[in-house]
Amino acid sequence: MKLPPRQDSTHSGLIHAHFFFVDVVGMSDPSMSTKTQIKKIEVLNRCISETEVFTSTPKETILMLPTGDGMCLGFLQGPELPLHLAVQLQDKLKKYNDGKIPTETVRVRIGLHSGNCFVVKDIRGQDNVWGPGIILARRVMDFGDDDHILLSPRLAGDLREISDEYRKIIKPVHDFTIKHGQTILVYSAYGDGFGNPKHPSKGEATRSLYGQELLKMQQTTTYPSVQVDLTILDPKTMLVQHKRTYEVANISDEPIYHVLHGIATDVEKYSLNDLNVQVYDENHREMKISSINVDKPTSKEFTTAFNKPILKGENNRKYTLVYDVEEPERYFENAFLIDVSKYVFNFKYPVNGGKCNPVFYEINQESDEKTKSKILPKIEKIGTFNIAKYIRNENIKGETLRVEW
After folding, report:
1. What whole-number distance in Å separates Cα of residue 225 and Cα of residue 248?
2. 3-state secondary structure 209-227
3. What are the φ/ψ torsions at residue 359 (nearest 5 degrees)?
4. Alpha-carbon separation of residue 356 from 9, 161, 323, 405 (angstroms)
5. What is the pTM of this model?
6. What domains, with CATH codes, occur in the chain?
7. Concatenated DSSP letters for 265-295?
8. What span, in angstroms and rounded, lies between the C-alpha atoms of 251 and 3?
9. Hey, which of 30, 52, 85, 397 has its CA 20 to 30 A from 405?
10. Closest alpha carbon to 401 in 210, 240, 244, 277
11. At what angle do helices 81-97 and 34-49 cross, to 10 degrees?
């Protein structure tokens, strides 16, 4: 295999930087006067120039590119600088906008990315910058609405690995189509006083992969055991923690690199992040979300990657999915579409937290006929909770098990 010649940054002008791309929302409004447009750009420029990030960072380490209705800054130093600049800029704009009528306010959207760009000569012979890093930062920004701080998966991943604080404020949003059908998982940064927790309103690629993934899993995967633990956290709101643990066996010759998760709810949840989702492996290591392809109010579908692939013949490989959601209809269903050898269901509910009487049913997936299970749960009191344990030691593929309480 012949490799391409190595790029020499001193000759090619190739630079790796961390990009901050911002523009003023609403500048295309035909009713806005040129004078107002100019004033908004001047306010944006002044607020950026007054941030602590901009004033304390050596100017020779910042690439600057005006874009008409905004600007792009590339930082040659740490990957944290674009995010800190975004937060500081929004703080200054909030103070500027306070007390002004809507037409006078300056509202922005921001896109962040780490990548490469090139230093090129413009028509006047002066240095200018352009390249894929800037282009992707712009495309990420374009998905945003007012106050959104959106990040590419590369920069988001780098920051989330730095500290738990970044993990709390940088959250995956959805797959978005960027060019020629290519999709990327976009992240959003938001917290107290910065960012926008709402879902971006444009550009998402919503497509369920469950059908095609299920066909593949039926040929490659079996579950020696599945355990579901349901715990009522709040009897008044019927907030329930769902914990599903799957033991995975690979029956194919190809490694299994990822797993697709589906969550259906009876209450509307605006974002996957509202469910406090956690996914981890048998060593309790986080399995990172690699794709979110459906994020509708009552249905979520996303993919996580195994920290190491599951090979044929491996034992004791597991993953656990945990999430919290209200169950006002007081029921839970588990459809079995893959071979399962053993199923354990634990339902934990407060002794004095409202009336609960768990009843288990079996549903035929072809006829939808529901019959009361002949297997009765064993109920044990532990502290202030009752635990109803239901166990099936047989292959139950093709059935749906339901509990009502």
Report:
1. 8
2. CHHHHHHHHHHHEEEEEEE
3. -125, 135
4. 68, 42, 21, 5
5. 0.81
6. 11-189 (3.30.70.1230), 210-404 (2.60.40.1730)
7. -SS--SSGGGGT-EEEETT-PBPPEEEEEEE
8. 37
9. 397
10. 244
11. 130
Q: Which residues contact 53 (CB under 8 A, 6 or more apart)?
A: 81, 84, 85, 88
CB-based contacts of 372, cutoff 8 Å, min separation 6: 359, 360, 361, 362
Amino acid (1-letter code) at residue 240 = V
> From first to last of its 405 residues, what are the pLDDT tens digits of the chain?
444 444 444 445 788 999 999 999 988 787 888 899 999 999 999 999 999 999 999 999 999 998 888 999 999 999 999 999 999 999 999 999 999 998 899 999 999 999 999 887 778 877 778 889 999 999 999 999 999 999 999 999 999 999 999 999 999 999 998 876 678 999 999 999 999 999 888 877 777 888 888 889 999 999 999 999 999 999 999 999 999 999 999 999 999 999 999 999 999 998 899 999 999 999 999 999 999 999 989 999 999 999 999 999 999 999 999 999 999 999 999 888 899 999 999 999 999 866 888 999 998 887 888 999 999 999 999 999 999 999 999 888 888 999 999
Q: In the chain, how long is the greatest CA-to-CA distance?
A: 84
